[in-house]
Design goal:
The complex is a heterodimer of chains A (356) and B (260). With 356 residues, chain A is of the alpha/beta class. Chain A has helices at residues 9-19, 35-42, 45-49, 59-70, 82-98, 124-128, 146-163, 173-177, 219-239, 259-274, 292-299, 315-323, 342-354; strands at 5-8, 24-27, 52-55, 76-80, 102-110, 116-119, 139-141, 166-172, 179-182, 211-212, 243-246, 253-256, 279-284, 286-288, 304-308, 329-332. In chain B, the strands form two sheets. An eight-stranded mixed beta sheet of chain B has the order 2-1-3-4-8-7-9-10, with helices on both faces. Chain B has a two-stranded antiparallel sheet with strand order 5-6. Classes of the chains: A alpha/beta (356), B alpha/beta (260).
Chain lengths: 356, 260
């Protein structure tokens, strides 16, 4: 039997990166995720597996190092928190357009601006709608436990390489900082073979020169490339939707929540059930692609949905789009660094859906 | 004597590098980029490193290089070429990685990446083409624009009191311990082309021999941006740019060879 360890979410991500066979990490310190780089340095990842770990001079430099290294076909990742992720957006747009695989971790803190180092889920729009300029999407995974912080690292790499697209792990200060039991997966070797059809590893005689670029000055080819990207995102929406359902089968009402809010809602759900309210919880695991079909199906038979997020209401817009006006969909959440309690969630739910 | 007696290998003084692609050069006639592209291609060919070399082409006229040299390239966001190069070199330490950047890219928007890649002593090569202006966007003021020089965003001449002084970034780079070789050259005369080629070769050899970062500035004209004929632009460059940006090696084998 595999042993359980007690780890911080950020440490679990770092250990998972080493075990997943990552070739390089480039990052810049920012609270509440600095433990990721600290762990990689203290663990001497380079000695363990040959994984390069480099502290860059800024998030800008870090994501551009990721861009360069990802172009060689290696498994590369970076991590940051909200303001740092904002700074990376230009290069993330380039990486998405140039179709390079990489993993980006955002341990979200509250904004806007410098905000506070306390947890938040207010980077949802930035994560699932692209974030930088142009029409593109990231694959977005939302862990709600330290176990998933570990498990989603190899999953994110798998999806990033499957679609040659950046994959984002959207965590938050709660999951990043809390300690929980975790069962780590077996180490996998670093890759030794790379797809010579696109990597920049040096032009050998048996292939043409590879150029990684997002520049296309001619609008017609650029439109064609955009169609190609959109077809890829549509394929993700068909094949990669992941979610967890808790007690949805007989539910009258549904909480829709991801990440740490989903943990809080699972407690609020127990409290609701104890009071005789038939509550269910739908936890999107992929935020892009979003489980809109599942939500549309649920909307055919439940009375209402409450999107619970530590934000002023962002995911609620996607829930409403999926529900398409069939039932009431409302939002509740503390934000600006405050975390709602299960009783606050239940009280808000009753006020909106029961008492009126 | 017939033509076939003249066209013989022993009489050959120049030949087009086999690494230059069939794409017609899209640089303005007389621009230093064409010559500098050619020198980089010749050196990669002569050193036999085509299969090991990855170039970084950033934003501005310098991005066009990836159309003209038959090697792997990664385009880079504006100013970030040294970071992109760092990423590649760190995961492929035995490959040869170089950036090819203009002055707006390297010395304005990318100053941080330039300084820090150099200061870390990344074992890469940086080719820096300084023409004192933003060429591709239509001739705006650059960090290297000379005092009094007219551009589209300094139409009455660069006023150093309100627009700052031209940045001698090459002298600044030379003082960093992480840097092994620094030189400033030009490509407007055959003699200068030969010296520039020697410097670019030294910068690549510095990397190949794992001695560290090599940095070569090429002072060039931008005749269309400067609104001059190619010949006039080269004269103006000699009279104005070269006194401010003097040519020659600055640092060799990690030691300063010129007092700043």
């Amino acid at each position: 039997m595999k042993e359980f360890l007690l780890m911080k979410g950020n440490e679990a991500i770092a250990e998972a990166a080493i075990r997943a066979g990552a070739d390089a990490y480039f990052g810049y310190p920012i609270t509440p995720q600095s433990e990721i780089m600290e762990y990689l340095m203290a663990e001497n990842a380079y000695e363990r597996t040959g994984m390069v770990v480099l502290q860059a001079e800024s998030e800008l430099a870090a994501i551009n190092m990721v861009y360069g290294a990802a172009g060689t076909g290696k498994k590369v990742l970076t991590s940051s928190s909200s303001p740092g992720i904002s700074l990376m957006q230009e290069a993330i747009s380039y990486i998405a357009c140039a179709e390079l695989p990489c993993v980006i971790i955002n341990v979200v803190r509250a904004g806007p601006g410098l905000g506070t180092i306390q947890p938040s889920q207010a980077d949802y729009f930035q994560s699932v709608k692209g974030g930088g300029h142009g029409d593109y999407r990231l694959i977005v995974l939302a862990p709600s436990s330290v176990q998933e912080m570990s498990d989603f690292v190899p999953l994110a790499f798998e999806l990033a390489f499957k679609y040659r697209n950046p994959a984002l792990i959207l965590s938050d200060g709660v999951i990043g900082q809390m300690m929980e039991k975790v069962q780590l997966f077996e180490s996998r070797p670093r890759a030794t073979e790379f797809d010579q059809s696109w990597v920049t590893t040096g032009k050998t005689n048996d292939r043409k020169a590879n150029v990684i670029t997002s520049l296309n000055l001619q609008p017609l080819p650029m439109e064609k490339h955009n169609h190609h990207l959109q077809a890829k995102y549509n394929k993700m929406e068909e094949d990669e939707v992941r979610f967890e359902e808790i007690m949805c089968d007989d539910a009258d009402y549904i909480f829709v929540a991801y990440g740490s809010s989903a943990r809080i809602c699972s407690k609020a759900l127990q409290m609701a059930r104890a009071k005789g309210i038939k509550m269910g919880l739908l936890r999107p695991i992929t935020l892009f692609p979003f489980p809109k079909l599942k939500i549309a199906q649920l909307a055919n038979r439940v009375k209402g949905m409450l999107s619970v997020e530590m934000s002023a209401g962002q995911m609620v817009e996607d829930v409403r789009l999926a529900v398409s006006g069939k039932i009431p969909v409302e939002h509740y959440g503390r934000f600006g660094g405050m975390v709602h309690s299960p009783s606050e969630v239940l009280e808000a739910f009753e006020k909106i859906f029961i008492k009126n | 004597m017939e033509v076939k007696d003249i066209i013989r290998d022993e009489n050959k003084v120049y030949q087009r590098s086999s690494l230059i692609t069939e794409n017609p050069f899209s640089y303005c006639p007389g621009c230093g980029h064409s010559t500098t592209n050619r020198l980089v291609a010749e050196i990669i060919e002569e050193l036999g490193i085509q299969k090991d070399t990855i170039g970084i082409a950033p934003v501005g006229c310098s991005v066009l290089i990836y159309d003209f040299i038959d090697i792997d390239f990664s385009q880079a966001p504006h100013g970030r070429a040294p970071a992109v190069a760092t990423g590649i070199k760190r995961v492929l330490p035995d490959k040869i990685v170089f950036t090819y950047q203009g002055d707006g890219d390297l010395a304005a928007i990318g100053t941080s990446e330039t300084i820090h890649a150099c200061n870390r002593g990344e074992n890469i090569t940086i080719i820096f083409v300084n023409n004192g202006i933003y060429g591709m966007t239509g001739g705006q003021m650059a960090p290297t624009t000379l005092p009094g020089m007219k551009t589209s965003t300094s139409p009455f001449g660069r006023n150093v009191e309100t627009m700052g002084n031209p940045l001698k970034i090459t002298e600044l780079i030379a003082q960093l311990d992480g840097v092994n070789f620094v030189s400033r050259q030009a490509v407007h005369t055959p003699g200068n082309v030969r010296k520039a080629k020697k410097a670019i070769r030294a910068a690549f050899e510095s990397q190949i021999n794992k001695k560290g970062l090599g940095f070569v500035e090429i002072v060039s004209n931008c005749n269309s941006g400067w609104k001059m004929t190619p010949v006039k632009a080269n004269q103006w460059m000699e009279e104005n740019m070269l006194p401010y940006y003097p040519l020659g090696d600055i640092k060799v084998d990690g030691k300063m060879v010129k007092s700043l």
